[in-house]
Amino acid sequence: MFMRLKRLQIAAVVLLGIMVVSTGCGSGNSELSAQGQDGKPKAISWSKMPEMSIDLNKGYKAVIETTKGSFEIRLLTKKAPVTVNNFVFLANEGFYEGLKFHSIIESFMIQTGDPEGNGTGNAGYRIPDELDTESTYKEGVVAMFNTGTPDSGSSQFFICTGPEASNLNRQPNYTIFGNVVSGMDVIKKIASTPVQNGVPVEDVTIVGVTIVEG
After folding, report:
1. 57: domain CATH number?
2. Is 101 within a domain?
3. Torsion sign (Cα): 73, 75, 80, 84
4. 113-155: per-residue pLDDT in tens?
5. Which domain holds residue 67?
6. How many domains does the chain have?
7. Tens digit of pLDDT for each residue in 48-82?
C-alpha cells in the first residue's frame, strides 16, 4: 500500500510539472487577464514588442467593427513596417476587442487602444517611432499615439477627424501607419459622440478587428 501511494504521489508531481510547462509554453511572454468576445481569456500585456511577422511585400488592411458601425484602414506597410506589424499582432491577438474610444474631439481625432480606458494604458512594451516627413496629418489618417517622448508608442492609436489635425504637422511626432479607405461616415458618427469634461458620455467600443492580407 505504501509503495502504491508513493507511485501515485510521483505520478501526480510529474503530471503537475507537465501542466506547468504546458501553461508556460502557451502563454509565452504574455499576461492573460481579460476576456475576448468568445468569453475566453485574452492577452493584454507582453514583456517585449512582437517579432516581425508580416510580409513587407504584401499589402494589409484592417476592418474595424465598432458599436457604431465598421470602417476599413489601409495599413502603410512600407512606410511604417514596425508599427504595422505591431498593430497586426495586437489585432490578431484580440487585444482591441472591447476597448473603447476613450478620447473624442470632433474636429481633431478619435482615440482608442487603451486597455485601461483612460489614456494611461498600453500593451506592456514600447515600439520605436517611424516618422515620415512626407506624410501629413489630415482627415482619415491613422497614427500611433505616444506619451510625448521618443519611441514610446505601444497600443493606442488615433484617427484624424477634422481640420484641427493639421496642427500636428507643425511637429510631427506620431507615426502615421494607415489611412481610412471606407467607412469615414462611421468615424464621423463616432467623432460626434457628446463629451463631458473631455470624456465621452457614452461608450463607443471596438467589437473586433479583422486583418485582411493582399
Report:
1. 2.40.100.10
2. yes
3. positive
4. 999 999 999 999 999 999 987 899 999 999 999 999 999 999 9
5. 49-213
6. 1
7. 999 999 999 999 999 999 999 999 999 999 999 99
For position 153, what pLDDT does the model report?
Answer: 98
Distance CA 27, CA 45 (A): 11
Rounded Cα distance between 112 and 131, Å, is 20
Q: Which residues pair with 180 in a beta bridge?
A: 73
**Residue at 32 is within a domain:** no
- Establish if 25 belongs to a structural domain: no
Do the domain assignments include residue 165? yes
Closest residue by Cα to residue 121 from 37, 196, 44: 44
C-alpha radius of gyration, the chain, whole number: 21
